[in-house]
Design brief:
495 residues; membrane; mainly alpha; 2% strand; transmembrane; 3 strands; transmembrane helix; globular; Glycosyltransferase RgtA/B/C/D-like domain-containing protein
Amino acid sequence: MLKSNKIRISALFIFIVIAITLLIYVPTAIGLADNSDFNRTMRAFGLTSISGLKYFSAEYGYKISNPTTIVQYFINMFLPVTDNPAGYYSTQFIFIKIALFFNALANKLVQRDPSLFNMLFQTVQFIIIYAFALVLFLKEKWKNNTYSNIAVKIVFAFIFFRLWLFGLLQLFFLENQLHLFFLILSFVLLLYLEKDKHSYFVYLGLILSLFIFSGSKPANFPSTLLLSVPLAYYAIKNEGMRKKIIICVSVVVMLFASYNYVKQAPEWMKNVTTFQAVFFGVLYNNPMPEQATKDLGLPPELSKVESINAYVEHPLNPYNNFDSDFQSLFFDRISKIEVLKYYLTHPAFFAEKLDVSAEAALPLRPTYLTNINLSNERADLLFDFRMNVWESIRKRFSGFASVFLSIVLALTLVNLIALFRKKASLYSILLRLALLGAAAGQFIIPIVSNGNADLQKHMFLFNVHLDILIFLLVLDNLDFRSRTFRRIGIAPCLF
């Protein structure tokens, strides 16, 4: 019985790997074009795009400026990256180092130019990780009723098994992959704890996935901190003293290590986001830009720089963002805290900004970046829309996205109240509160920390949290044996 179960799980894993691979590469490979964010990662490894088309083509072939030996690539996998010219460091580097090793090995075997890098060797890693997360969920029984259990798994696959997701496997801006894959893996493992599956392997996988997720981007740390609360609570409540201490100490170490990545964020990145939080955020479409500038504690003459991002230069931006005079005029006087204070003291304007954020959250991939590879002659922002059903459904709420998000929020709160009345475990309630708090934080963070700049991309992590909340509503309430559920399901058919 145990052997046949392992065979079924292995077969499911192989099937998912093949399915994802076919969806990525057939009939044409999909990915996401570079919006200049790839550079911070690529520079750490001496990689450059062969075509350099950026926005207009999803690139899979790259040039290595300093190729080395297979042995050195192997050694590099275990060494930290310390000399990135961009000053940017992230857990995403782990996977690039592994990819470079296998790429060098393949180059040697087929006698290919050692300076060529193929994205395939990075993509394979994420296919395996994501397939593993899916298998972990699909192999378990989440509902006592067979049909309800099957329905829950179909909904999970429908929401999280889609083409835009697979496109993220094929790019160098790895924050998005690590957002998705390791947050979903963490979510599934947290559900394992809810089912009292609490082996050391579950704890180890959960702590590692939260660390990799958090270390991929400073903005991920608040979500990691919140999700660590139910994790620590479960260990304290259910484990023996020795295991309890091991788990809790590991969680604390993981959080300190994760926060270290937050502190390592380069100064240029902080300056760029602060500039955009003010000039492309607070002052963008502000009816009183001069007064807003004063409210922020800045010289009123800076209001003339409204509605531009940090990369706009003279004559639209009369200031040099890297000049010491502008440093004292602007950067020394402002921080993200002041930006947040401004929004909180101007709730009507803040509500308008959040409404824009809600609309930006509907697409699941940036609409201004192509997702297929194009030649120089056809660099005209073309897209592949196959397997796009869930995104299409979300886009139908365009124009009243805030209403849609408010409904999901209201239903989540009602669900929490229902769980409390049913005397559900405190762990279950804490887990849902943590996910709700993380979603709320990720809804606010983009507009406060970076303004309207690249807003669709920055709302990506919120989208993942939102989809998890939607799925939890299904998981907690889908029960074909319930008379109330059947009546709700039949009602739309009568009208």
